[in-house]
Design brief:
The two termini are about 15 Å apart. This protein has one domain: TIM Barrel, CATH 3.20.20.70. It contains ten helices and twelve strands. It is globular, with a radius of gyration of 17 Å. The chain has helices at about 35-45, 65-75, 90-100, 110, 115-125, 170-180, 205-210, 225-235, 245-250, 255-265; strands at about 5-15, 20-25, 30-35, 50-55, 80-85, 105, 130-140, 155-160, 165-170, 185-190, 215-220, 240-245. By secondary structure, it is an alpha/beta fold. It has an eight-stranded parallel β-barrel with strand order 1-4-5-6-7-10-11-12, surrounded by seven helices. Helices cover about 35% and strands about 25% of the residues. Helix 1 runs parallel beside helix 2. Helix 3 links the parallel strand 5 (about 80-85) and strand 6.
Length: about 270
């Protein structure tokens, strides 16, 4: 069995010189968390399996700032780096790879132009193409949507775009399947309802998607403690857990989370 991965996520606001890491709640209520390359090096030394950088400003005029952040980070961090936010073309992806990233994560651009998944996978390999899905619960019944039973009622999951500011009407489960068919190597699955709440991962969402695709699913949104990571690994087929708040503010160290998981019978790298 592949080792389960623990992946810290750095949401980068590049609207300030050099950039800064921030964290929000349900994609809002942003607060400062640190300097990107400093946090990344700390997490690398603490045992992170990978590190994700998300450019939450995602504008072309700030693209050079993100590339500079990745170049600086890659000098001292030697685990896979994934970069997402504002990657709209194969040219954008190439610039990110050339700066030192190992993977790119695409969301809005992929939903608007699904062929971008094929292009990146064909050029750089599926292992380098992560499709990010930001999903929102919808409790009304809609024809053609996959209904999932939850403790709060039956719902379907809608894909959002533009960092949660727009919605597509696209079913997240069906989209994950299409992304896999087009060549994605990972699905980074974020619950908008749980993001930043520290209430735990959306088990129903993660279970539904991870049981429908063969590629790894990265559970994201809601992690508040090691027990939440254990739960998502025990109750779903997620191969990785992404977290931010529990690491950014010093509540838990990655190595301690991994030791806890190993004690509970979860295969992790230590």
């Amino acid at each position: 069995m592949l080792a389960r991965r623990i992946i810290p996520c750095l949401d980068c606001d590049l609207g300030v010189p050099g950039g800064r890491v921030v964290k929000g709640i349900e994609f809002k209520q942003i607060r400062y968390a640190g300097i990107p390359w400093e946090l990344a090096e700390r997490y690398y030394l603490d045992g992170a399996d990978e590190i994700v950088f998300l450019d939450i400003t995602a504008s072309h005029e700030r693209r050079e700032t993100m590339l500079a952040v990745i170049k600086k980070t890659s000098k001292n961090v030697f685990v896979p780096l994934t970069v997402g936010g504002g990657i709209r073309s194969i040219e954008d992806a190439r610039a990110v790879f050339n700066s030192g990233a190992d993977k790119v994560a695409i969301n809005t651009a992929a939903l608007k132009n699904p062929n971008l998944i094929n292009q990146i996978a064909d050029r750089y390999g599926s292992q380098a193409c992560v499709v990010a899905i930001d999903a929102k619960r919808r409790y009304e019944s809609v024809d053609g949507k996959e209904i999932v039973k939850t403790p709060d009622g039956d719902c379907w999951f809608e894909c959002s775009i533009y960092g949660g500011r727009g919605f597509t009407g696209i079913d997240a489960i069906a989209w994950a399947e299409e992304a896999e068919e087009r060549g994605a190597g990972d699905i980074m699955l974020t619950s908008m309802d749980r993001d930043g709440t520290c209430d735990g991962f959306d088990i129903e969402l993660t279970k539904a998607v991870s049981e429908r695709v063969k590629i790894p699913v990265i559970a994201s949104g809601g992690c508040g403690n090691p027990e939440h990571i254990l739960e998502v690994f025990q109750k779903t087929r997620a191969q990785a857990a992404l977290a931010a708040s529990i690491f950014h503010y010093g509540k838990y160290k990655i190595v301690d989370v991994k030791r806890y998981l190993k004690e509970k019978g979860i295969h992790v790298r230590l």
